[in-house]
Amino acid sequence: MISLLDTRLAQLKRTDEVVHTITPSELNAGEWWAETGRDWPGHLSSGLIEPRKGYRFRPENLALSVILDGVECERLVDLGTGSGALLLIADAFLEPSIGLGLELQSDAVERLGRTLEAHQRGHLRAEQGDLREDKSLRTLVSTLGGKADVVVMNPPFFPSGWGRASSLESVHRSTHALHGDVFAFLEAAKAIVSDEGMIFVVFDATRMASLFAAAGKVVLEPDRIVMIPNRHQAARADEPYRVWVRFRQGSMLRSL
Length: 256
Ligand SMILES: C[S@@+](CC[C@H](N)C(=O)[O-])C[C@H]1O[C@@H](n2cnc3c(N)ncnc32)[C@H](O)[C@@H]1O
Prior knowledge:
Largest sheet: 7 strands, mixed
Distance between the termini: 56 Å
Bound molecules: S-adenosylmethionine
Structural class: alpha/beta
CATH topology: Rossmann fold
CATH class: Alpha Beta
């Protein structure tokens, strides 16, 4: 059945954009969600606006819903929010009073503004800014009215210059650390999260060493992990392809 939200999204998307539905079936046929016996939030199934050609929704984003289980949050931030997939998923499961998505690429910020308008979620906002700049982080904290309880992120996995770059500049800027690597993302998160707050990071399983090295450097400790198995036929059975990790403030002594 077509809902009012579906109609608004269809009206607000442009000809070079698509509406991408956010449903459990996109990740490993949805079996992981069926096991929970819970209903999937209906408005997520209506989805978000994203570019027809460009960085698109990734199925591992869905597993954020699992690692967020039992977490309480008033103030939410999504660093490098892109089309806002993590912002929308975290909002649906945490029901914060305010949620901000920070993004460098202004066309993505404008697009997310239209997705949020369609969803009529007045407590969510897309902000343009660079997470490496103190000014952007100060503005976030002041708009939130205090430090964040939860920060979510999907930082670019690949070092600048690694592998073959996408011919689309917007994709290259999303997959490769051209404007800050995982360390820059975690450093920004550390600056805006409260003492009791939590940081949720999705990362490539084969690059975990760089994630943990960066976390150690900014004194964050992992305390929860969700591994996402790679069900691709060519993959080895013991090879998770993406990993969600929850970090909390650490202590220098325990990081030694
Ligand atoms: C891997 S994409 C993830 C997009 C989205 N969060 C998702 O999960 O679909 C990384 C995002 O971080 C943004 N980004 C990279 N460097 C940034 C910076 N210095 N400040 C703010 N955003 C940045 C990119 O533009 C891109 O949208």
